[in-house]
Amino acid sequence: MTSLLLVAGVLVAMFVAYNIGGSTTGPAFGPAVGAGAISKPVAAGLMGVFFFIGAWTLGRNVVTKLGTELVVDPGIFTLESSIVVLFFIGIALLVGNLFGVPASTSMTAVGAIAGLALAGGVLDFAVMGQIVVWWVVSPIIGFWVSLIIGRYFYARLNGLIAIERSTGPLLDLDRSGVVPVPRVHRTTNRRELVGTFTVVAIGCLMAFSSGTSNIANAVAPLVGSGELAMNPAIVLGGIAVAIGSFTIARRTLETMGSDLTELPLTAAIVVASVSSTLVVFLSALGIPASFVIIATMSIVGLGWGRATRPMTGSEIVAGEGGAPIRVDALAAEREGETLPPIGAEDADDIPDPGALFKPVMTARVVLMQNVVPAIATAGAYLTFRFVPIFGF
């Protein structure tokens, strides 16, 4: 009977990891895919590889933390309770993936474990409070940093690193030898090549960071129960994440790469840099990082900042984006002419807010990122509190 329960637990854990692959691939590689830097299959492959590296190296520390420190008594993780917790994590994440919205795996997993611990009276409120505080603060930091960059620095950054995709592919495969060798396509320019590799490299860093924190969301209950060893748990979780990246992640890649905001390659680099920096910082503090929400709010902040960017004096004098300034402009008022508002002649240079920041899609994303963890938390608590077989 125990062996059958263990098999069921492993399958449920892989189901959770499968949905983690679906929900985290979008935030990591959505900017690169939306900018046309890489294809969805390439993004999925990179996600699987770097997620596993992160899980195998640093992820085991987070598994231990989540499986022991969040609850006062780790003995509450029986095989049966672990399966139920994983079931609610997987179902909640599946809901988000079916809606095409990448939900926070950390919030969902911690919520389900907290529901179990709360029903059993063993929740460590100090640890839970510390995690929640950082969940609130980190997206706000990501939003405002990205908004400031978009509002005051994006134009200059875009002038320095603007990359317009060429008509041809980025690379060609030289099949003249035994092993195909990638070579730069004749239409690819140097700035395009450097920028593309930059945004992809940052996506790989985010995938690595996801592995360090999110592998625990799939396997921590089973490892904490003592029924599954750490190494095979990480291997099985990594395989399931890769499968999810190649299948269900397609919709979240579209949401994070194009539906939420129009994202040129320069913007993708900014979003990925801000998000990955915050995720690495939280991982260093031992906090399960909710980088789905960080990346979402970073995209929103950048889009909002770009859409409300004021014109600078140098841009107006230079006449960028509009008609040149007339020498006799100052005399116009004396002659009875009506002067246009400052910067109106350059209105074409300021992006339309609806093109960069889509309130309806953003509201849907934010709503689902709160609904999904709530489903896991409420489901776990009600089950462990009122179903008699658990004895809480």
From TrEMBL:
Taxonomy, superkingdom: Archaea
Predominant location: membrane
Signal peptide: none
Keywords: Membrane, Phosphate transport, Transmembrane, Transmembrane helix, Transport
Pfam families, A to Z: PHO4
Coiled coil: none
Subcellular location field: Membrane
Keyword Transmembrane helix: yes
Function, as annotated: Potential transporter for phosphate.
Similarity comment: Belongs to the inorganic phosphate transporter (PiT) (TC 2.A.20) family.
Protein name, entry field: Phosphate transporter
